[in-house]
Amino acid sequence: MGKPTIVLAAAFLLAPFTAQAQNTPCSGHKGGINHCQGNTFICNDGSVSSSKKSCPAYTGGLGMAAGLLGSGSTEMAPTETGDCSCDSGKYCTGPRGGRFCMTHEGKKSYMRHD
Hints:
This protein has two helices and six strands, in the order H-E-E-H-E-E-E-E. The chain is α+β, with helices and mostly antiparallel strands. It has one domain. The protein has a four-stranded mixed beta sheet with strand order 3-4-5-6, with no helix packed on it. A two-stranded antiparallel ribbon has the order 1-2. A hairpin with a 5-residue loop joins strand 4 and strand 5. The protein is globular. The protein starts with a helix and ends with a strand.
C-alpha cells in the first residue's frame, strides 16, 4: 500500500465524522427545530435560528407531517400589538434597528438581516 492509498483510505474513513460535525439549524442548547415561520426556523427553546437555509426546503416542505406543529407559511412580520414572541411569528424592532423576538424564557433572540 503506497502513501496516496493510505491517505485516500483515511479520507473515506473520516468522511462520516466530518459530515456529522456540520452545524444544523437549532442545534445544541436550542433543542432542535420546533416549526417553520416562512423561511425562519423556530427552535424548541423559543428562539429563532440564524441559519441562512430555507426552513421548508430543509425540512422537505413537510410541515405538520414532519412533526413541526404550527408551521407557518408566512414570514416573520413586525408586531402591531406589542406581542413579539418568536412563536407568534412577529418581531419587535429595537432602537438601533435590530429585529428580535422573545424566547420562552423572556430573552431576546435576534434575527439576521438579509
